Every structure is written in C-alpha cells, then in structure tokens.
Amino acid sequence: MDGKLAADWVRRWDIQQERYIADREERFAVLIxxxxxxxxxxxxxxxxxxxxxxxxxxxxxxxxxxxxxIVGFDNDPFxxxxxxxxxxxxxxxxxxxxxxxxxxxxxxxxVDAAVSTTALHWLRPERLAEVYRDLAGAxxxxxxxxxxxxxYDEQPAIRELAEVVKNRRAExxxxxxxxxxxxxxxxxxxDPALRExxxxxxxxxISTGYGNRLSPQEQTRLLREAGFAEVAPVWQxxxxxxxxxxx
Length: 247
Prior knowledge:
It is a single chain. Helices cover 43% and strands 20% of the residues. α5 crosses α9 (216-226). It has a seven-stranded mixed beta sheet, with helices on both faces. The chain starts with a helix and ends with a strand. By secondary structure, it is an alpha/beta fold. A hairpin with a 2-residue loop joins β6 (230-237) and β7. The longest helix is centred in the middle third of the chain and has 18 residues, at 156-173.
C-alpha cells in the first residue's frame, strides 16, 4: 500500500479513536512508561502488542524503545496493511494476522512485556482467561502485561460516576464531534484507492459484536488466577484505565 495513503488513514483513525478516549495519547504514554520501566535492564526486549490495529501504539513504543523487538497481533487485514505501510523504517516491528479468540496464537517467548489498548474487551471472559494464562506462562519474571481499556466498576453508583467523569472530560477536550468508528469504516469502503486493493468485506471492520464489560475487580481476579503476582491500575480517568499485571 502507498505509504502516504496509509498514513492519512492512520491519522484519521487516531482522531476517530479520540472520540471514545479523550486522553488516548496520555494513555499511550503511561502504557509505554510501564513497559520502559519493566524493560529497563533488558538490552533488546521482546514486546507483544495484542489487537494492534493500524500500529498506533506499536509505532510509539518503537520510538521510545528503539532496541525493542515488537510483535503486533491483529485479525483485521486492512488495519494490518495500514500498520505495515506506516511502520518506521528503523523500527523492529513485525505484524502478524492472528485471531486472539483462537488458541495457539502465542509462539514467541520469553516475553518481556505485553500491551493492549481497547482490544481485549472483545474476548469472552473464558477466552480472556486463557489468553491471560498464555501470557503468564510466556512472560519472564518481572515482566508485565499492561492493558489500557474501559472497565466498568461493580458498584452501580461508582460506575455511573466514572462514566460522567469520562463524558465531561470528552466535552472539555472537544472530541465529541470527531468521526465515529462506523463512519470511518464507511469512508474507507468508499475510497476508490482502497477498493482497488481490498475486498468489501475487508473494508467493513472485524467485530465480534461482543464486549465483555468486565469490571476492574473481575479483571484483577482473572489475572491473579492466571498466575500474575501483582495487579493494580496505574492510571485512571473515569472508566478509562491502564491496568498493570506483573509476573
């Protein structure tokens, strides 16, 4: 794919995503802060990016950790094509088409860190528990899984307050008028330059239609049962979290 065309669509993707995560860049920065810290004594760390999409987080990781090897996993061929076309020339990033809902996805190790952002909520709880067990087995001692996502507190009044805080932050940031997810995909499907390369099915977005809406308490329980030693949020704004799980 043409690099400029891909870069334009990734920029548009990033703006679209900020409609749902007003502090997306800060969330990225915090995720990378954690990875940088747990990999501080590793000369060439291996970092996995689960549900990498068009490579927004992987690109930023490579910029901060230039000696890291990063492997991004996603099941969407169009988003992966954008990621490959916009991969910085000097970055050691591999992109792999993989369905995390299926077993046998993890063939790399030992792993120093794994990251994900707004992706693992699509996995059903029982499958998510398996992915967590896979990661706990592959991560070295002292390694971490760092997950940025929306988590919904078990306490209904707190859950409501967290949503209010998130929505008020979005109002102040002025992202409410940003392009919606469905509109972004519709625009991609209507672009003649993309339709020459991708099928209609590849330009509509892969979605399971399932969001597990797990609470931070449930996430912590699944991670501890999988074998992680310590689990806690390291950043939160409303119901937007960065959750760190350490081996």
